[in-house]
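Cross-check.
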Amino acid sequence: MKAGRDFMLAYSPERVLPGQILRELLENARVIGGIDRASAEAGRDLYATFVKGEIVMTDSTTAEMVKLMENTYRDINIAVANEFSRLADRFGVDVWEAIQIANRHPRVKILNPGPGVGGHCISVDPWFFVESAPDITPLILTARKVNDSQPEFAARLVDNALLQNGGKKVACLGLAYKPDVDDLRESPAVDVVKLLVKSGAVVSFFEPFKPDYEIPGARRSDSLENATSDADMVVLLVGHTQFKSLAPDRLAAMTRSRILVDLVNGWNAESFITAGFKVFRLGVGRE
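Predicted model, tokenized:
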């Protein structure tokens, strides 16, 4: 049997957000790539039975390239944000303030930096371009290297805070690759924990959306209190809602630590400083 003669073959790249899959499956625009026009039309007719968003037809190769382009675009933009966080740290600037001001420009939209890039799409898809055409993808490759090395930069920030303040016990909050999901694939937060263990820190962690996940050399905790009670330092790795909404007085009541490292700009530094904490933040070369 031959595709296009004996049966039709179409491809539609997945474009859904973890935690919003059913809604986005129905409402997002869909790209249908067929190996021929009849296949694309058949795919369109199938998706039209439930998709409310616009359906765009093209060939299968273009549909796949669109998918890779979307995730590569985001990867490159996150990479420059991560480099900005490193520059701000060196130059004594608050990168979060700088990004907020820069984004007032009508044609500028800088994304937020963090401990790296995770998930099974953005951190993976650009490699298909690089491996298929290494001679013409230096920008994509460089962005990948920047984002893959960001967990090391984040871990060094934690290590330096430990050196300045003493202690070895670190409580890490969150392991997922993004807030409020249970997806840990390619998660930079996991990489940071592993790097801290390798550097000699005594690490406990709490991931509320994946409570049974294990990391060799680190202690899994079943609650925020259990993870932080005996810590010398608390590190915010993922901006889960329950972590970002944590009040300074509540955290102070559950841990002896008064040293915080915020890698995602999830906490209001001033309120925690007022409550007696010393706060280190990713991309902030001044406090």
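The chain has a mean pLDDT of 95. The longest strand covers residues 30-34. Passed to J.P. for a second look.
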